[in-house]
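Please go through this chain and its backbone structure tokens and walk me through the local backbone shapes. Keep your notes short.
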Amino acid sequence: MQSASDQLPEHDYPDHWEADVVLRDGGTARIRPITADDADRLVSFYEQVSDESKYYRFFAPYPRLSAKDVHRFTHHDFVDRVGLAATVGGEFIATVRYDRINDRGLPASAPADEAEVAFLVQDAHQGRGVASALLEHIAAVARERDIRRFAAEVLPANNKMIKVFTDAGYTQKRSFEDGAVRLHLDLEPTDRSLAVQRAREQRAEARSVQRLLTPRSVAVVGAGRAPGGVGRTVLRNLLGAGYTGRVYAVNASLAGNGGPVAFDGVPAHPSVAAIGEPVDLAIVAVPAERVPEVVADCGEHGVQGLVVLSAGYAESGADGRERQRQLVRQARSYGMRIIGPNAFGIINTAADVRLNASLAPQMPAAGRIGLFTQSGAIGIALLAGLHRRGAGLSSFISAGNRADVSGNDFLQHWYDDPGTDVVLLYLESIGNPRKFTRLARRTAAVKPVVVVKGARHSGSAPPGHRVPVTRIPHATVSALLRQAGVIRVDTVTELVDAGVLLAAQPLPAGPRVAILGNSESLGLLTYDACLTEGLRPLRPLDLTTAAEPADFRDALVAALADETSDAVVVNAIPWVGENGATEFGDGEVLAASLREAVASAQAPTKPVVVVHVEMGGLAEALAVATSTRPTAPGRGAAAAPGSRPAGLPAAPGTGTAPGADSAGPRESSVPGTADAGPNGAVPASAGSGSALSASALSAPARTSGASAGAGGVGDGDPGSAPVPVPVPPATIPSYPAAERAVRALAEAVRYGQWRRQAADPGRVPEYEDIDEAGAAALIERVLGGDGADPRGVTLDTAQAGELLARYGIAVLPTLPAPTPDAAVAAAGRLGYPVALKTTAPHLRHRPDLGGVRLDLASEEQLRTAYAELTEVLGKPEELLPVVQTMVPRGVDTVVRSAIDPAVGAVLSFGLAGAASELLGDTAHRLVPATDRDVADLIRSLRTAPLLFGWRGSAPVDTPALEEVLLRVSRLVDDHPEVVAVSLEPVVVAARGLSVLGATVRLAPPPPRTDLGPRSLPSY
């Protein structure tokens, strides 16, 4: 279709349309507008397209583009005619364009709202999801330019293109005209189109992580000639782990070297290009200034991903931040993803991979915990703590500055990874909180997600981390994460405590806890700890200090069979005979008895934890004891998301590993030299003062995959032939303090309750009296009026009342009282008794300062109160007094909602008054809130008993309160221009409630990045 583009107005280049996307196979591509400078790229691209694809595009043989075609396809006005290209390495791999048309199919301009769209994908890149990604982006561009529908003609034999349109999830119509399939797509996003988009995002991002974790070959770039240095350390760690793929060393100083060279038996080359074989993953350990040439070398020779250990990036200042931006842009231009820079590395313990591409000198035990950290030092502490507790890992990532691959990407991977049952995250910043919350909620529905957040009170992100500005406090973010099912803990010790329990034991069915042991005092401490955590402990069973291991076994068997409990805590102290000697060993005998008890359980559905005090050998023995979890397939077996296979391995070796109770200072930067630097030894955790010994992580807990060949170069293909792996029994978690055990158990109880509720998340009610169109008209009138502030406007009292009334929220009338006579007149209109209140900003909602007079039943009382207020607090023009009718007594509450640029719309609730503000007793939920959400919101306050008849008072009308919360949620969700709402106070009586004051602020809505087309964070 021809159009006179030269006659169309010129528009600035829309750089905000540029985006990096992850494709179906895990690679990346850049999408950007096509410009007049792309003529040569377009011609080169077209020459590489097959004749069949050209025929499908033009419905006739079209071997080459004419000069006129090239001009038409590269000259756009970015309004009525738009072209986008997907590029890799700077070259086109696919194009899409639209032309605005009228109802007769002819070229048109606005207000015509339909456009004809056409795609062309290079044959070598078909099947990678390029067309689907381009459709999302060209549809977003079209909506921005007020185009509401796409029309497309496709030959019936072009099944791939027809599938791109029909699978997109948009509302569509299909017809057959003149030998072609005619498709019409409504571009308004639907629930299905959004679901399709997010499913594709999940598959693509999960695949990109899988490619990093399961490479068939690895090159260590920066491996020095002499032992030592970061590069040689990683090379040694790869070989020591028994990596099953091919390993290469790269050192630029080998250029011009005569014969073959090997480092530690591994072939060494001067560049990736010189290897002459495919390389999937490159570990980069060279100085930051040399990284760009390494990236180019890798990108030009098909490397799929990079782990950049080099430092000197955003953590080092402004120059480093620019260097980091250039690194990400360069890597993405080649379709590569990056872990790092300033990373510690990645580990995959799967028997058919055994990848240790990190600075950890020993391979962790294989297990079913996925661990992500943003700190190498914390990563070391967590590896040590999990090892000491007998918990193995499926994979480990320490992402450093996480300039590209982040915790969100690994959540996408772990969501349906059958080898991971529990996800542990140490985060110092959350780059995309809205997306993180969405992914965490979905993952938590099938497996636990435990998060500890560092840098909570510093007020800024750690150096090197790019995060959006947020106005909401950390406590609010934590509350929203808990709403999403995330298990939120405060320390790395609690992270390990919760992780080992969730990985080894079933979820408790409820809060009832049986307590048994040979110490009455320890039993009472456990009982008190349960009450503190909101659990329901049963009366402790004291077996007395004379109890033998057999007594523990019998008591545990009975507790597991008892239907009145949901979990069991076993307390144990040493047995001491009359002569002071230990009579029943150092704990191994007790461990065997507990193992026997849980193994004999008829229906193992209860978690068991052990609290021990100075029981030598007990913790180590329990680390290999059988849990009460049911047996399930091993690591390599297929499993549905959320299945909980048994089989955490025994802790290898006998060396003592430090705990994770405390970590040392933040890790130092990884030196950027190939021939100098630390030898990679793991530093000690500050928790115990002892280093993680080599033997502590040396012995594999599973039969390894194909062993490395001569010189450490494996011949295996990771993922191609899994070696049968014996899965040892899982662990019974043990704790040195009752408080730690109970806290971990309480987190499991709360998570189990959330899982059960998540199966029925509630609904967003429909209210017939809501006037959505009327509210939209009011908002448009206010924001679009002459003189409207583009930054937003706070509605006056009448406007706020009108807007809220359209959503069924009645605000009690308030009349101004600038003089005593005006106050009397207002009271006459409203009817006595009335209240007299000041509305000056410094006195508003502060009854404790004396700015409110209540129950004024006559004109005399009103005039007296007016005189007192003005005499004590100031002149009427300063106080801005108002008169309001009295309402039934009740509990004063506050309902608020605000839109935060980082997390979206948040609904908040609390009781009014200084005490609640001082204690921070406010609860939060994400919008849109369901009926279940608001019921939980009200009950989650510490002061909630005041609403339910505390100390003999009458319970208030909580259903009416829930309805107001739901209506506010609907208002903010339906109209993103409503950026803030505050109802204060809302007096909730025994029957009904009254909204005494309301403030509403309108502003142009902030962009919703989560509703746009798929894209990686921009750099």
